[in-house]
Design goal:
heterodimer; A: Rossmann fold; 2 domains; five-stranded antiparallel β-sheet; 17 strands; B: five-stranded parallel β-sheet; five-stranded parallel β-sheet; 17 helices; binds flavin-adenine dinucleotide; binds iron/sulfur cluster; binds FE2/S2 (inorganic) cluster
Chain lengths: 280, 452
């Protein structure tokens, strides 16, 4: 059993959970994920880690309430226990001295980007952080991100903060930054990863995306997480979750993620991530 | 042995084979000649005193029978159900040609089930604590055996299991209708009662490495199985509706998908399901799909004779209405506009010269391509060991297919204080072989610990 230390809604429909899992926290690195189960016989829910404290033995996740399992998770209160926290899973994000790194996050990726940006900053990189949301009220953790960034930019679809529109505004932001960008890291929903990679490809910037296909075990046993990267099949849970965004077969990934929509009740969806794909 | 009728069982997930009543068991046991040099024992990978326990049944001394069985086999209720007795002990019983071999497996199962019906199992003698600590990686039959043997000898044993349930393939792979999960749970509860520490949700190599565990434990046994699914690398394999057998069976068994939506992990309603492969795993997938209401077919590249699955399971599948396409090889999957598999393109094969395995090699018949409409495909062509532990353990010698190299007699690996056994060493094999390997490793670990 793993104890919930903190549970709160950070912005509408986006929840934060701090859970006690000392063995997991001790080994955690930026870019890795955990699998939680909120109840006995519950689904296994993969979630990127947004922070951890090895000393206190806790792990922090930020997640969007999109369906049955995440809504059960969201209903947990501090002091309650959950049956599973497995991890750290997947490979850590590559942390090195690259020069300037643009960290792009949306949705839950705003949270999971934070430890990555922090580690890259500690390595001596310049960090340009760009966060993206439908509207300004959906931003969270801006203070934390500001602390580890040389500059923080916002994009909102309704223009309530920063640039108005979509990630297609990135080139202007990079221009405003005024220096070259050596690497881009994107965390968030699949549409953001894809659209961000499309933009960076045209600018010739190496781009690392953290993929989130459907997973079950997270250890390479079931193969449901397979993605095509540079024409080869990879298991995202053990070969990833980070991949070169310019080599991912996005159409296949988007289709595979939709395998169970009919079965899942998607009644809570408010992020409307798909809109990235529809609108220019 | 009495079974549920095919037309009934093909629509439920209850156990197919119903087991012997005491009277039938005693009658069957009385046929045994109690050979002086019993052939059957030679066929048993763990050398159970077969005539011994059968005589006990004949004399209605079931308590003694259970004790004899458990001397060599700590999972009799499991083995009595899933062991391929027809190619082990029963195949060489002297009665094969004289009235038929003794139904050894069924008698084994009878005793184990009889014991379960008696309430609390008899607790074995547990030696005084030795102060030695052993970590067992993987809660499958190999790991469970090592744990059971070493705890009795007074060592402190902890099993680390990656999934949220102990049992390995016995819980996530083999379906309920062949091996009820309550039976596996009973064995695990028994270990727990004996004092084995059970840690689930712990991925060795990720949560902690083998080297880190070695700092805390005197010895380690790796029984992590062969859990990495193979695909064929043919076009269309990543379409929606194409599963590995592991995914399909895990959704069904471990996550209880057949009870969706009471249990939240979804499973699709498919109407035509093709299973690629011809082993036990393929039979299990096809029979599961059938029970979910689909038309299920096995696509196998050789002929019926070469099917590697147990004969009993092939017959069960046939009776239940699984369709078999022999001498057929899938070469491509085709999907619809939403990325769902809709058709399989196949080639007809014929049998050529025998290959290395002694079976006749299937060769394609040119121009024989044909198309089968299908809305799901389950790839059950094999598994190899997961590379996670090998990749994170320096000094551990690994073979060509990712299997850990270990001594056959002792289970010792190339790394000090590390033993291994079961599917992770042999590649996908059988429950009883994994158990046998666990037994030998436990003996060797005990010797080592006793010398400290
Ligand atoms: C490596 C990884 C990291 C992730 N990190 C985060 C995170 O930090 N925060 C966050 O909000 N979400 C994250 N996700 C996605 C999250 O796992 C899913 O949103 C969640 O499992 C949905 O469960 P549900 O039952 O509530 O929704 P459902 O109603 O079951 O599904 C809603 C949608 O979520 C996706 N989904 C469903 N089941 C899974 C599954 N087992 N694995 C992956 N996706 C699934 C599908 O696209 C589905 O259409 C991550 C996914 C992966 C693979
Ligand atoms: C569908 C199916 C049907 C079968 N039918 C039969 C049959 O009828 N008769 C028969 O004799 N055999 C059958 N087999 C084969 C038999 O189940 C296996 O040979 C046997 O289970 C192997 O035992 P094991 O202990 O070596 O490994 P497993 O049972 O595979 O157990 C290994 C365990 O280790 C865990 N693990 C893996 N990596 C790690 C890690 N890094 N850290 C922690 N834990 C880890 C796994 O999660 C798993 O629980 C079948 C197999 C399948 C898949
Ligand atoms: S070989 Fe057959 S008859 Fe002889 S002891 Fe074994 S089971 Fe009995
Ligand atoms: S989640 Fe099962 S193999 Fe990746």
């Amino acid at each position: 059993m793993f104890k919930i230390i903190e549970s709160q809604m950070v912005v509408p429909n986006m929840h934060l959970l701090v859970v006690e899992a000392p063995a997991v926290a001790r080994q955690m690195n930026p870019g890795q994920f955990v699998i939680l189960r909120s109840e006995e016989d519950g689904e296994r829910i993969p979630l990127s880690v947004s922070d951890w404290d090895a000393k206190a033995g806790t792990v922090t996740v930020v997640f969007l309430n999109v369906g049955h399992s995440t809504s059960t998770l969201a209903s947990l209160e501090s002091g309650m226990n959950i049956p599973s926290v497995v991890g750290p899973l997947g490979n850590p994000t590559e942390i090195d001295k690259f020069g300037t790194v643009l960290c792009l996050g949306g949705c839950y990726g705003i949270g999971s980007l934070y430890p990555i940006a922090r580690a890259l900053k500690e390595k001596g990189n310049k960090i340009v952080t760009v966060i993206e949301a439908r509207s300004s009220f959906l931003f969270y953790w801006e203070d934390r991100l500001r602390e580890v960034s040389d500059q923080l930019f916002h994009i909102t679809r309704d223009g309530t903060k920063g640039s108005r529109g979509h990630v297609s505004r990135l080139p202007e932001i990079i221009k405003a930054w005024g220096q070259s960008v050596d690497r881009m890291i994107i965390n968030g929903c699949t549409f953001l990863l894809k659209r961000g990679s499309d933009v960076s490809r045209s600018m010739g910037i190496k781009t690392v995306v953290s993929l989130n296909p459907i997973m079950i075990d997270g250890t390479g046993m079931c193969g449901v997480c397979r993605v095509t990267v540079a024409e080869a099949t990879k298991f995202a849970c053990v070969d990833g979750p980070d991949f070169d965004g310019h080599e991912v077969d996005w159409a296949e990934l988007l289709q595979r993620r939709k395998q169970y929509v009919a079965e899942e009740s998607v009644s809570f969806r408010t992020s409307r991530c798909e809109e990235h794909a529809r609108r220019p | 042995m009495p079974k549920q009728a095919p037309e009934v069982r093909r629509r439920n997930f209850d156990e197919v084979a119903l087991g012997y009543l005491a009277e039938t068991a005693v009658q069957e046991a009385k046929r045994c000649l109690g050979c002086k040099k019993p052939k059957c024992v030679l066929g048993c990978p763990v050398e159970i005193d077969i005539p011994g326990f059968i005589q006990s049944i004949a004399q209605r001394d079931f308590v003694a029978g259970v004790r004899i069985l458990k001397e060599k086999n700590c999972l009799p209720a499991v083995c009595g159900r899933v062991c391929p007795q027809e190619e082990q002990c029963e195949e060489i019983c002297v009665l094969v040609k004289k009235g038929g071999q003794i139904a050894i497996g069924r008698l084994e199962r009878f005793l184990a089930d009889w014991e379960a019906g008696q309430g609390e199992p008899e607790m074995p003698q547990i030696s005084a604590p030795t102060g030695r600590k052993v970590a067992v990686i993987g809660g499958g039959p190999a790991g469970l055996t090592v744990a059971g043997d070493l705890i009795k000898l007074g060592h402190h044993v902890t099993i680390f299991e990656a999934l949220h349930k102990m049992g390995g393939v016995l819980v996530y792979g083999i379906p309920e209708f062949r091996l009820p999960k309550a039976i596996v749970q009973r064995e695990i509860d028994y270990l727990k009662k004996m004092g084995v520490e059970l840690v689930t949700d712990f991925v060795v190599g990720k949560t902690r490495t083998v080297d880190s565990l070695l700092e805390e434990y005197h010895a380690i046994f790796v029984g992590s199985g062969a859990g990495l699914p193979w695909f064929m690398n043919i076009p269309g394999e990543n379409l929606n509706g194409v599963y590995s057998a592991n995914e399909y069976l895990t959704r069904m068994n471990l996550m209880k998908g057949f009870q969706f939506p009471q249990f939240p992990t979804p499973i699709k309603d498919h109407s035509r399901v093709a299973v690629i492969g011809g082993g036990n795993v393929a039979m299990d997938c096809a029979r599961t799909a059938l029970r979910l209401g689909a038309e299920a077919r096995i696509i196998y590249r050789r002929s019926r004779q070469e099917l590697p699955a147990r004969l009993e399971e092939i017959e069960n599948a046939e009776e239940e209405g699984v369709i078999f396409d022999f001498l057929t090889l899938p070469i491509r999957y085709m999907g619809d506009e939403n990325g769902w598999v809709r058709k399989i393109e196949c080639l007809r094969m014929k049998l050529g010269e025998p290959d290395a395995s002694g079976r006749r090699r299937p060769v394609p018949i040119e121009g024989s391509e044909f198309i089968l409409p299908m809305d799901a495909v389950i790839c059950a062509i094999g598994n190899s060991p997961n590379p996670l532990i090998a990749a994170t353990t320096p000094g551990l010698e690994v073979g060509k297919r990712g299997n850990i190299v270990a001594d056959e007699e002792t289970g010792r690996t190339s790394k000090e204080r590390v033993w291994a056994g079961g599917d992770v060493v042999t590649g996908a094999a059988t429950v009883i072989q994994a158990m046998g390997a666990g037994r030998k490793a436990a003996r060797s670990i005990h010797e080592y610990l006793s010398g400290l």
